Amino acid sequence: MKPVEGMSVLITGGGSGIGAGTARHLAGRGARVTIAGRTAEKVNAVADAAGPNCRAVVGDVAVAADRGRMLETALEHGGALDALVNNAANMLRGPITALAEEEVVDVFRTNVVGGMMLTGLAVPHLAERQGAVIFIGSVHTRRSYPGASPYAATKGAVEALTKVLAAELGGQGIRVNCVVPGAVPTELNIRAGLFTQAEHDERMAGIAHDHPLGRVGTPEEIAEAIDYLIRAEWTTGAAVVVDGGLSLGLSNY
Question: 8, 82 in Cβ contact below 8 A?
Fold first, then answer.
């Protein structure tokens, strides 16, 4: 497998959660990591903590001009582009009878369209390095949670997109894979205004028993899977489930 040291990696949604954990993991192993996010304070704090191998760029993946700036920063910082991690996402919940169309469209712009467009921009640079694209899916495609139809639909789209792009880009030596996390503490629901931090922490504790391994995961454990897929030279079109067994549907009955 290719060593991660010296690789140039662009991570969207790098200001918290899985994006931040992946930035720390890869930068600590010698990769030149560029993280993008909408909140300057958050992405700058993650980059500062990760050290000189990590650089922050402020931008929204749903905005075309921002996507261009993200790529330019990664090319400047890393000298090339070996991997793109499409991690940025928003959450929307609600009964199907009460969803506002524009809110549903907005979550698709961030969770699906933004990553598609950024991948398209990155293709020529990834082809030069025989690089990799990683999408972040969700256990919502394996277990059905009422009220989460918009988010689950975007993650189903991401998994389908992974397979199509793996077939489309394989001839250029670009591998495209998806990591499917289980319950991992993130700011997604808090940022969407669905929970306070205390409510989120309580929810994570409550869902631990649904995992056969008895606990929720960590961003760093998802980062390990991302690390593998960036370097695995004969893996493409895969959806790697890293969920502590949550998708098994554990039942005590």
Answer: yes
Instruction: Characterize the bridge pairing of strands 54-58 and 8-12.
Output: unpaired
CB 226 within 8 A of CB 134: yes
For each of the domains in the chain, give its residue range(s) and CATH number, in order of start.
8-244 (3.40.50.720)
Euclidean distance between CA atoms 64 and 179, whole angstroms: 25
Give tens-digit pLDDT for 96-116.
999 999 999 999 999 999 999
Using DSSP, state whether 42 is helix, strand or coil: helix
Question: Active-site positions?
Answer: 151
Please tell me the pTM assigned to this model: 0.93
Q: Which residues contact 100 (CB under 8 A, 6 or more apart)?
A: none
Q: Which are the contacts of 20, defined by CB distance < 8 A and separation ≥ 6?
A: 14, 35, 46, 219
Q: Which pLDDT band, with edges at 50, 70 and 90, does 148 fall under?
A: very high
- Tell me phi and psi for residue 27, to 5 degrees: -65, -35
Q: Is the pLDDT of residue 189 over 60?
A: no
Q: What is the pLDDT of residue 87?
A: 98
CA distance 214 to 147: 25
Cα–Cα distance between 72 and 213 in angstroms, integer? Answer: 41
3 state SS of 227 = helix
pLDDT at 252: 62
**Strand duo 83-86 + 54-58: pairing:** unpaired
Cβ neighbours for 114, distance < 8 A, ≥ 6 positions apart: 12, 60, 61, 62, 67, 86, 88
Rama region for 74: left / alpha / beta (φ>0; ψ in -120 to 50; rest): alpha
